[in-house]
């Protein structure tokens, strides 16, 4: 039996990647909407209610509208927008965080797919909050660099167009007003009292991401060393297929001392690094903003919700 899937918003970067990942699978039937009916709510509603599972790859308002179009109680929805990530009625789609998260996803009909930057931050901070390492009021800072595909089709066209400026060839910081749309989920999912300071950058390459969180050990619950933090991270993610804690210090994978952000492009993998020295510990999460940060995570959540091999179509 094939599972019927509808991707509402297939023309965007996440939608196209999901379509590519599912297109070669013989257990999936993709329901397609005619190009001239993409904004026809009656046709969208028909396809949404005919599917076993629906991906919403839409702006927030349109995603909320799509949920209202769903009247079939058996339809499962994965929302890749920001619209439902802090909604308590939706399950957060990061199964590696805990067995509770995975079980919630397995039994859910409404899953909010994590944001790309948020995935990196949460992968580093959530285990330490759960282990009692980070005090409630710790002033967290997060730095991140992403490929330009994370900004969508408009940015891709600008970066790959004839009118590309010299400034576009350099890393560019943005969201300087500390109002980035991923901040609410970063705070809520990790159980933080305050939002972190967040410094995102987009650079002149297509996809891939590194999210970094520095820690000052004297400000933690006790004076942890990098080895202590590495042990906690390794225990937390033990046995996970897609999330791996790398060798302490990253020596095995960073022979030249540089951490490239595009190493895991086109995969659903995530690597966790614990670096630094006793007083200053540096945590890094490396993954593909279009993979574990978007479409890969969405397909992984779909697999779990449908009760099939979690890795199907993601290797």
If strands are numbered along the chain, what order do they take across the biggest sheet? 8-9-7-10-13-12-11
* Shape descriptor: globular
Radius of gyration: 20 Å
Helix content: 25-40%
Largest sheet: 7 strands, mixed
Q: Residue ranges: pLDDT <50 for 5 or more in a row?
A: none
- The total count of strands amounts to 13
The run of helices and strands is: EHEHEHEEHEHEHEHEEHEEEH
Structural class: alpha/beta
> If helices are DSSP runs of H or I spanning 4 or more residues, what is the number of helices?
9
The portion of residues forming beta strands comes to 15-25%
Average pLDDT taken over every residue: 95
Distance between the termini: 22 Å
Could you characterize the architecture of this molecule?
The protein has 315 residues and is of the alpha/beta class. It is built from nine helices and 13 strands. The chain has helices at 13-23, 41-50, 60-69, 99-106, 116-130, 153-159, 183-190, 226-236, 291-306, and strands at residues 3-8, 28-31, 53-56, 76-79, 91-92, 110-112, 141-147, 172-173, 197-203, 209-216, 243-245, 270-276, 280-287. The strands form two sheets. A seven-stranded mixed beta sheet has the order 8-9-7-10-13-12-11. The protein has a six-stranded parallel beta sheet with strand order 2-1-3-4-6-5, with helices on both faces. Helix 5 runs parallel beside helix 7 (183-190).
